[in-house]
Design a protein that fits this description.
- The chain is mainly beta.
- Helix content is 11%, strand content 50%.
- The chain folds into 4 domains: 94 residues, no CATH class; 69 residues, Phage tail protein beta-alpha-beta fold (3-Layer(bab) Sandwich), CATH 3.55.50.30; 80 residues, Elongation Factor Tu (Ef-tu), domain 3; 52 residues.
- Strands 1, 2, 3, 4, 5, 6, 7, 13, 14, 20, 21, 22 and 23 form a 13-stranded mixed beta sheet that branches. The chain has a 3-stranded mixed beta sheet with strand order 9-12-11. Strands 17-16-18 form a 3-stranded mixed beta sheet, with helices on one face.
- A hairpin with a 5-residue loop joins strand 6 and strand 7.
- The longest helix is centred in the last third of the chain and has 15 residues.
- 30% of the residues are buried.
Length: 317
């Protein structure tokens, strides 16, 4: 049986004092392509003793934190970010956010007209980014942070999140990490699949709402699929009705598929993150096998073990 291992490193905001420890009560990390911010909560003994200073001078808002988890002292870096707050309960709760936290500390005021999304990102963010090739009619921001502006861009059907330090700004369903496939076998390394259901294409309830803003100021809107279905939105600029119809129909066909919906739990290894491809193998029903773009991963570590709860976004193969 494998033994659980953890390693936490925290450096104060000045970068001069740090603490390292390899024991935690619990860790929970929540990642999703639908959310701007990856969050983490680390629970440790409140009377944590250190040799190189006062814990209160090190673990504070803005401190850098790295969380590594694994088995038998073999670690995987599961989270890198910043301390955003400390809970008052016992054990001590260290609340954290990824690099999106730093993008909540600035402010911009500007107006754009007929602008590419890439131009907006270049103005509000100077790090590495992968940005969709899309022009929007315009955007006005007043004393808004980079994170708030990214949140505004979501109304154009975009997902904005960090993937291994790279800011991703693209449509839902876009695959960026094509080479990263992780295999899951329902017998070997899947802990529970009670919340995972195989559905036929005809049973999926999906609604696609597609809009195109014209240069004249008018808007074309099409709604396809099931009125009571899960809604997916698409936003474009200066696209005529025929083009919009083709794209919306293709999107609906992509979302209505024979395959798994829901989520499943797996062991801590192999590690996986949103944007990776989960290759699912069901020995009892091989006709259900397939590859899925991962939308969200909730990682937990503690008394119940080291687990990933994985939510597929759509089938890709």
């Amino acid at each position: 049986m494998f033994g659980l291992s953890s390693h936490i490193a925290i450096t104060d905001p000045t970068g001069t004092n740090f603490i390292e420890f390899n024991f935690v009560n619990e860790v929970e990390i929540d990642r999703s392509r639908r959310k701007l911010t990856t969050t983490a909560t680390v629970k440790v003994a409140r009377k944590l003793k250190i040799l190189n200073g006062d814990i209160n001078d090190i673990i504070k808002r803005g401190s850098k934190i790295i969380v590594q988890l694994g088995y038998d002292d073999n670690y995987t870096e599961e989270f890198t970010g910043y301390v955003t707050g400390l809970g008052a309960k016992i054990p001590l709760e260290i609340k954290c956010e990824d690099s999106m936290w730093t993008l909540k500390q600035n402010s911009f005021s500007k107006a754009w007209k007929n602008v590419k999304v890439a131009e907006i990102i270049d103005y509000i963010y100077k790090g590495a980014a992968q940005v969709v090739d899309l022009k929007i009619g315009g955007l006005i921001v007043k004393q808004q942070s980079t994170a708030q502006i990214l949140d505004d861009l979501k109304k154009f059907g975009l997902q904005c999140y960090f993937d291994e330090g790279i800011l991703i700004v693209d449509f839902a369903g876009a695959v960026h990490n094509k080479g990263k496939e992780v295999n899951f076998d329902f017998v070997k390394n899947v802990v529970a699949n009670d919340n995972l259901e195989y559905k036929l294409k005809d049973d999926a309830r999906i609604k696609v709402r597609a809009t195109s803003k014209l240069a004249t100021g008018k808007k074309i809107e099409l709604v396809l699929g099931d009125n009571d279905g899960e809604e997916h939105t698409l936003h474009y600029v200066n696209m005529d009705k025929d083009q919009l119809q083709k794209i919306a129909t293709a999107e609906l066909d992509k979302l209505k598929y024979n395959g798994f919906k829901g989520s499943f739990k797996a062991f801590g290894l192999p590690t996986i993150k949103p944007g990776d491809i989960a290759v699912l193998n069901d020995p009892d029903y091989p006709e259900h096998n397939g590859a899925y773009l991962v939308e969200a991963v909730k990682t937990t570590y503690g008394m119940d073990g080291y687990r990933h709860e994985i939510t597929p976004e759509r089938k890709v193969a």
